[in-house]
Write a structure and sequence with these properties.
alpha+beta; Complement Module, domain 1; Beta-Lactamase; 6-stranded antiparallel β-sheet; 5-stranded antiparallel β-sheet; 11 helices; 14 strands; 31% strand; disordered C terminus
Length: 342
């Protein structure tokens, strides 16, 4: 016999145990003795759950482009792994004055009761409500009897949804609390009792991914909305990624700009100088400043001023550029002005 089961200890905790038993028989095949051994495999189970959770977090943040979508995927995994009825992520705002509900996952019958429209509990100040208290203390909290607990600001909704207890886990990255994960239960279950033991890595893993995704989104907003050209190119002269401003300034579609080497669009008289700058980059040097002209689809020319980093280890060059055509036109006109009579 080889079996696994769970035991409830006198301290109120559950242990996973594995039992092995063997029957000893006499020469006639009759059972005469049973010998066996039981071992505690709780840590093995915890390690397996920890790895499963770590993999779920990594997969969600790699597959989803937006932070909110990644968090929804993580919360669904947490609910499945820990058998929770509700899961939320609260994130501290940029001003560090409020903590805001960013994503949640719950069964349909719980969602409609616990998240009524305009409930008014989408953000808390530090020290207020369970998310705010967890943010302030920096400690894992476990509150029970939520329906009658005045500290739990959403106790009325907890009663309606049948949520009886809640965990709050601070998400810390570089000694800074980025947010709080809330995990709710409508009753007791073994998996949820095991979950707190996984938090030695869960909180830092998730907080790190949140910080990285926030930085990506902030950079993406800058990349998309800055009026100047921002682009990433290979040292082979082909563009890898461009921001919308580059298409707007030069008049070509993104696909057109990515399909040809950048010298294809450069005014013929400036190509030699441009190739010299590309060769300078290939030697591992940055480009502090240089100007060249680009031909646009309507036949006009655009003067562009460039600055570029030295190539990365992957051979990528990050560049910013500004349209200085108007400046050049004013400069040209000023040099052609006739002298005023004396």
């Amino acid at each position: 016999m080889n079996d696994e089961y769970r035991c409830f200890t006198h301290k109120g905790a559950y242990l996973f145990v594995k039992s092995r038993a063997y029957i000893l028989r006499d020469n006639g095949g009759n059972a005469v003795r049973l010998i066996g051994a039981t071992s505690d495999i709780t840590e093995v189970k915890r390690k397996a759950l920890r790895n499963e959770l770590k993999s779920a977090i990594s997969s969600a943040f790699q597959s989803e482009n937006k932070l909110k979508d990644a968090l929804h995927a993580v919360l669904r995994s947490i609910r499945a792994i820990g058998n929770f009825d509700l899961a939320e992520v609260w994130i501290v705002g940029n001003g560090k004055q409020l903590i805001n509900l960013v994503a949640f996952s719950a069964a349909d019958n719980i969602e409609e009761k616990f998240y009524p429209p305009l409930s008014g509990f989408l953000q808390f100040e530090k020290g207020c409500g369970m998310p705010g208290v967890c943010w302030q203390s920096g400690e894992i909290l476990h509150w029970e009897s939520l329906a009658t607990d005045v500290r739990f600001r959403r106790n009325r909704y907890a009663k309606d949804a049948g949520i009886t207890s809640m965990y709050a886990i601070p998400l810390s990255h570089n000694n800074d609390i980025k947010g709080v994960v809330m995990l709710g239960l409508t009753g007791d279950n073994v998996e949820s009792r095991l979950f707190p033991a996984l938090l030695d890595s869960f909180d830092s893993d998730l907080a790190s991914e949140i910080s990285r995704k926030q930085a990506e989104e902030e950079l993406s907003q800058l990349f998309d909305f800055v009026p100047d050209i921002i682009c990433i190119a290979g040292i082979d002269g082909f563009l890898r990624k461009i921001n919308p401003a580059m298409s707007t300034i030069l008049g070509y579609t993104e696909q057109e700009l990515l399909s040809h080497p950048i010298t294809y669009f450069v005014y013929p008289e400036d190509r030699e100088h441009t190739i010299e700058q590309i060769n300078h980059l290939k030697k591992g040097n940055p480009v502090v400043y240089f100007e060249n002209r680009f031909m646009t689809p309507d036949g006009s020319l655009k003067w562009i001023a460039w600055t570029a980093t030295a190539p990365s280890s992957e051979g990528l060059v990050f560049s910013v550029a500004k349209d200085i055509t108007e400046k050049k036109s004013w400069s040209y006109c000023s040099t052609k002005q006739p002298a005023w009579p004396k």
